[in-house]
Amino acid sequence: MGLLVLTMNAMFNFTFSFIICLRVSEQVIVTAYLPVNKDGTPLPVPFHFSFLYRQQQLRLDATQIGKCIFLVVLCIFIAIFDPILLSRFVSHFSGGSDAENPEEEVSPRDMQQMNSKGSRDFCIKNIKLADFGRREIELAEDEMTALMALRKAAQGEKPLAGAKIVGCTHVTAQTAVLFETLVVLGAQCRWAACNIYSTQDEVAAALAEQAFPVFAWKGESEDDFWWCIDRCVNVEGWEPNMILDDGGDMTHWIYKKYPHLFKKVNGIVEESITGIHRLHHLSKAGKLCVPAINVNDSVTKQKFDNLYCCRESILDSLKKTADIMFGGKQVVVCGYGEVGKGCSAALKAMGSVVYVTEIDPICALQACMDGFRLTKLGDVVRQVDMVITCTGNKNVVVREHMDLMKNGCVVCNMGRSNTEIDVSSLRTPELVWQHVRAQVDHIIWPDGRRIVLLAEGRVLNLSSSTVPIYVLSITATTQALALIELFNAPEGRYKQDVYLLPKKLDEYVASLHLHTFDAHLTELTDEQAKYMGLSKNGPFKPSYYR
């Protein structure tokens, strides 16, 4: 694979085209990439030509030569009339991004923003990306059939009419489908991102263009992060009555800054294990003043999102960030819950030697019976090539561990919490941080040894890659039904505590996704249902089933 960069130094002194050349046996395929959008988003030109080497003679037909000439002329034309567009294109393909060079641009907080409808109630990176974001959302809708079914069912009634939902989740095409579904169901929503790196700017633009209040962009600072959450909550004449959280940051902020708002809040729906821990702490301290539904421990979240999503996305994320060869690599996976199971299985299938650390003897026994060696991190940290955390806990990998790691060891996190790796301990004068590319930093010790830190210890797959849409459809549908359940529950059904999703709703979420596989459920006979002590329509598992 070779990269040919054509320049016009004499006239303009900047790069104007990229051509990627790939030789396969006796054939050479050339693909050209050009910036064709005024907002600076590069798109591949559907232009390909090939030629064959035969007896050291190059043979091109006239049509292919004509395409090549047209490409060069087009490059020159763009170079003359839109150099800014080209500079953005070059930045994109060189691995840079606006979010990585904040000192070179104006913060979205300092920009005057308005969509085509005249609305200014949002803060995003670039409203001009809305068309591309809308296409991504439409693509996600094709896979998220259950949410689309909820929209169709809501045409006659609005189960969330009167709901005012503040959300703090990842802002991606998948969560945008959830956001817009909640609106179709009758809710008013305001949204912020739960992760400073996971926002898809084009998706945020698409939501803002539809006049949805969204406050998120990729590469937020910590101050930006809390500012965006505050903009969702601190609104004159608008008070939330439902919270949809992923990590507990929205709930934390309201408790800290606006506790009076909980007088009108019907409940909280929390997706992540980190957020659930925070809710249980509030409950034990007697400070949880509204009911909450724990989506993270629902069967549909545990058995599908946590397992299948991570099993597929861990490999993609590691390839995109660190160009890793998996075969023969020694990897330690910290935690053998559903996320750890997915990561371990994927890496083992690719030929990696996988060690597992675990605190729970039941999960530890599962790891052993699945063929993994159970160990302590300190016992293998000197020899492994990768360390992956999947616990939702804090300080799983600390400075003492990282001081012992071999040169080039990759360290990353697949759990929800950004505290699993003690990144703050690495920000000391004797260590040098070297930014390599998007989501990749080298931390260099005085002796020259370095580790490779991915996504600054934040959740890797949503910081550097994407995840399977279909799996997220299951989780998003669970969240929507949990919101409907809490909002419409009669007074007294739920007290000030943390609840699991009713098993009937868990099974309903699964049933909404079966038709995409052309799957057909077997129905119990009356005799069988009576023998099992079940209703023919479910639920088929007890409430404690996980």
TrEMBL record:
InterPro entries: Adenosylhomocyst_ase-like_sf, Adenosylhomocysteinase-like, Ado_hCys_hydrolase_NAD-bd, NAD(P)-bd_dom_sf, S-Ado-L-homoCys_hydrolase_CS. It catalyses: S-adenosyl-L-homocysteine + H2O = L-homocysteine + adenosine. One of its GO terms (biological process) is one-carbon metabolic process. Residues 306-467 form the S-adenosyl-L-homocysteine hydrolase NAD binding domain. Keywords: Hydrolase, Membrane, NAD, One-carbon metabolism, Transmembrane, Transmembrane helix. The keyword Transmembrane helix applies. One of its GO terms (cellular component) is cytosol. The chain crosses the membrane at residues 6-24, 68-86. Its cofactor is NAD(+). Pfam families: AdoHcyase (PF05221), AdoHcyase_NAD (PF00670). CDD domains: SAHH (cd00401). Pathway: Amino-acid biosynthesis; L-homocysteine biosynthesis; L-homocysteine from S-adenosyl-L-homocysteine: step 1/1. Binds 1 NAD(+) per subunit. Its EC number is 3.13.2.1. SMART domains: AdoHcyase, AdoHcyase_NAD. GO terms for molecular function: adenosylhomocysteinase activity. It is an enzyme of class 3 (hydrolase). It comes from the Eukaryota. The keyword Transmembrane helix applies. Belongs to the adenosylhomocysteinase family. This is Adenosylhomocysteinase. It comes from Cyprinus carpio. The lineage of its organism: Eukaryota, Metazoa, Chordata, Craniata, Vertebrata.
